[in-house]
Specification:
By secondary structure, the protein is α/β, with parallel strands linked by helices. The protein has helices spanning 3-12, 50-63, 84-101, 113-122, 139-146, 171-188, 208-216, 219-222, 236-242, 250-262, 273-290; strands spanning 14-17, 20-23, 29-35, 67-71, 106-109, 126-129, 149-153, 196-199, 229-230, 267-270. The longest helix is centred in the first third of the chain and has 18 residues, at 84-101. The relative contact order is 0.13.
Length: 291
């Protein structure tokens, strides 16, 4: 490996978040999901009250979460867009309350620049944009001006329609090309490369077979030299493969996540923090020993 390749690889194992660096080299990071929505597919309605959201966040921190991802707008298949005012009403109290709890990095799951800007002002460190800067033209400037970490995710279509007959010639190549283009667009807009993480968007405009193909060939995305985030927790393709409901997909999710880590994923976005952290203690130990 050349000196340039070594530097590039080391950079890909670090995530820059508003003046702090999160190392991804020796330990897979866990991003706990905290939806403050009435209609998310798995936990909708459970954490609408700010006090309930803060308690849930604190519980995930105690269980080992490295990051909390707070979302106020459901992006499940068929979900409709809500007003920015309503999204802000949901997420800001949760972010403010969690920021008082400790120094854990907080992420805001939003497609809207105004929500992202106010969320970062309230204490968020990361913008998790399922549209990869395509939904709101002002989002890139928010990322530049705040220095927040940024997740760029692949999604075919919009949440309202993304699961209506999604088609690809080669899903792995098309997702890779899309993410590479969005990384270049983000850098061209002034966003630091080390602030960027990519997410293939499992379940976002994909069939069961597309999701399986992306996980099986996830190492194709690792060559982009940016950390890869994977979110498979409780998703419907696991139910299609196992016949289990959302609350019975833990084992299937752990299996898919473990395979993704062995293929190079460095951040897992999950509902079940405790169980995921337990699995990763063993998996990361074996991975380090192997290398």
């Amino acid at each position: 490996m050349t000196v340039e390749e070594t530097i590039s690889t080391a950079s890909a194992m670090t995530w820059s978040l508003r003046g702090r660096s999160l190392s991804l080299e020796t330990r897979t990071r866990v991003m706990g999901i905290l939806n403050v929505t009435p209609d998310s597919f798995s936990d909708g309605g459970r954490f609408l009250a700010p006090a309930d959201a803060v308690r849930a966040g604190r519980r995930m921190i105690d269980q080992g979460a490295d990051i909390l991802d707070i979302g106020g707008e459901s992006t499940r298949p068929g979900a409709c867009e809500i007003s920015i005012r309503e999204e802000l009403r949901r997420v800001l109290p949760a972010i403010e309350g969690l920021r008082e709890v400790g120094d854990i990095p907080l992420s805001v799951d939003t497609r809207h620049a105004e929500v992202a800007s106010k969320a970062v002002a309230a204490g968020a460190d990361i913008i998790n944009d399922v549209s990869a800067l395509r939904h709101d033209p002002a989002m890139a400037e928010v990322a530049v001006s705040t220095g927040a970490g940024l997740v760029l995710m692949h999604m075919r279509g919009r949440p309202e329609s993304m699961q209506r007959h999604p088609r690809y010639r080669n899903v792995v190549q098309e997702v890779r090309d899309f993410l590479a283009e969005r990384v270049e667009a983000a850098i061209a807009a002034g966003i630091r490369k080390d602030a960027l993480v990519v997410d293939p968007g499992i379940g976002f405009g994909k069939t069961v077979e597309h999701n399986v193909d992306l996980l099986a060939d996830l190492d194709e995305l690792i060559g982009m030299r940016r950390p890869v985030l994977i979110g498979v927790s409780r998703k419907s393709f696991l139910g299609a493969l196992t016949g289990r409901g959302p609350d019975e997909r833990l084992a299937a999710g752990i299996a898919a996540q473990a395979f993704a880590v062995l293929r190079g994923a460095r951040i897992l976005r999950v509902h079940d923090v405790k169980e995921t952290c337990d699995a990763l203690k063993i998996l990361d130990m074996l991975r380090r020993r192997r290398t």
